[in-house]
Amino acid sequence: MQPVRWGILGTARIATEKVIPGLRRTETAEVVAIASRGAAKAEAAARRLGIPAAHASYEALLADPAVEAVYIPLPNEQHVPWAIRAAEAGKHVLCEKPLALTAAEAGSLIAARDRTGMLILEAFMVRQHPQWLRVRELVRGGRIGRLHAIACAFGYHNDDPDDIRNSLRHGGGALYDIGCYPVMLSRWLFGAEPARVAALVERDPAGGTDILTSALMAFPGGGQASFTVSTRMVPYQRLQLFGSAGRIELLIPFNAPPDRPCRILIDEGGAHGDASAVAEDLPVADQYALQGAEFARLLRSGAPPDYPLEDAVATLRVIEAIFRAGADGRWVEVGASEGP
Questions:
Q1: Helix (H, G, I), strand (E, B) or coil at 178
Q2: What is the C-alpha separation between 241 and 208, in angstroms, rounded?
Q3: How remote is the C-alpha of 209 from its chain's centroid?
Q4: What secondary structure does DSSP assign to 119-171, as a single string?
Q5: What's the pLDDT tens digit per position in 109-127?
Q6: Could you tell me if residue 250 is left (phi over 0), alpha (psi between -120 and 50 degrees) or otherwise beta?
Q7: Beta pairing, strands 69-72 & 147-157
């Protein structure tokens, strides 16, 4: 397979510390260019990372004929505008999650995809990790019986007012940044869309972003998923699935390490606590490398993606409903986009 020639639209940490190293662990990618809004920053990143070309503007990178596909790690509110510009410049696009701030905004990117014919995907790297593929296999195979509930806690502590994750204007906050994971994965595991949601949302009195959000999603047929995410919490992440005949626990569900195995616990409930849980270790895997390899496979084969942009729209509809439920203090039906 001919490697995909990547250009990186920005020097965010997720790009320089996760995505670029991941791409380089595959034989399907070649990082040929990186851009920033100034020459000095782009050149410094290119030197540090050994990237051949540095561009002093995003526009220059999009005009670079050596670049075949673009990875976009920009602030959330810039995802859709730059993804559209990249597609219109003839570049394929891998855009960081959340794809957009509203479902309607993401819909405009679908229109750009259909108009240009470019491959455009949302970068949810967890979908390719062996632990999540194994969990879905166990659920679908009936290992824990009927899936009844999903429970998740995910948080970190960041009170830096200058960090874009704490900027309302840039689309910051806990729900957009990390709450999108349990929303997407709950939909993925239940194989359905939640019908309604309820939520509690605490906002930063200074910056306005949500700093503590808890939500409950009700799925057709009685399934439920709940989560708490926070940007002011001790760093922690855990996710559990509860079925009629057992449970599955993921110890590091989202930030899976690239250099050691991930462990899941499978418990059929024979004893209290974890006494009856059986540990299963999954192979060492870099989920960013797997994400890049899957993008290359789709691009070179022309195969339809398992998770097209329409899936991102569905996730955003749930996120919008959670924001509305938190503001109104009531159950909200998941439906048309109204904005947070």
A1: helix
A2: 32
A3: 19
A4: -EEEE-GGGGSHHHHHHHHHHHTTTTSSEEEEEEEEEEE---TTSGGG-TTTT
A5: 999 999 999 999 999 999 9
A6: beta
A7: unpaired
CA dihedral for 124, 177, 138, 312, sign (positive or negative) = negative
Strand pairing category for 332-333 and 277-282:
unpaired
Strand partners, 121: 94
Which one of the listed residues 18, 41, 91, 97 is annotated catalytic? Answer: 97
Residues in the chain with pLDDT < 70?
Answer: 336-340
pLDDT of residue 337: 43
- What are residue 148's phi and psi, to 5 degrees? -105, -40
State the amino acid at position 297 in one-letter form. R
Structure tokens at 152: 């998740």
SS3 87: helix
3-class DSSP assignment, residue 338: coil
Q: Could you give the angle at the alpha carbon of 241 between the alpha carbons of 239 and 243, nearest 5°?
A: 170
Give the SS3 label for residue 102: coil
CATH class of the domain at 129-285+317-333 = alpha beta
One DSSP character per residue, 202-262 reads EE-TTT--EEEEEEEEEPGGG-EEEEEEESEEEEEEEEEEEESS-EEEESSSSS--SSS-E
**Run of H or E residues at 111:** helix 103-116
Domain boundaries, the chain: 4-126+290-306, 129-285+317-333
Residue 202, token pair as written in the block: 């605490």
Q: What confidence tens digit (pLDDT) does each residue in 51-88 have? A: 999 999 999 999 999 999 999 999 999 999 999 999 99
Q: What is the CATH number of domain 4-126+290-306?
A: 3.40.50.720
Tokens for 17, please give them: 């510390």
Which distant-in-sequence residues (6+ apart) come within 8 Å of 302 by Cβ? none
User: Three-state SS string across 251-280, please?
Assistant: CCCCCCCCCCCEEEEEECCCCCCCCCEEEE
Does 91 participate in catalysis according to the annotation? Answer: no
Look at the block and give the residue holding tokens 């999903």. 150
CA atoms within 13 A on the CB side of 171: 24
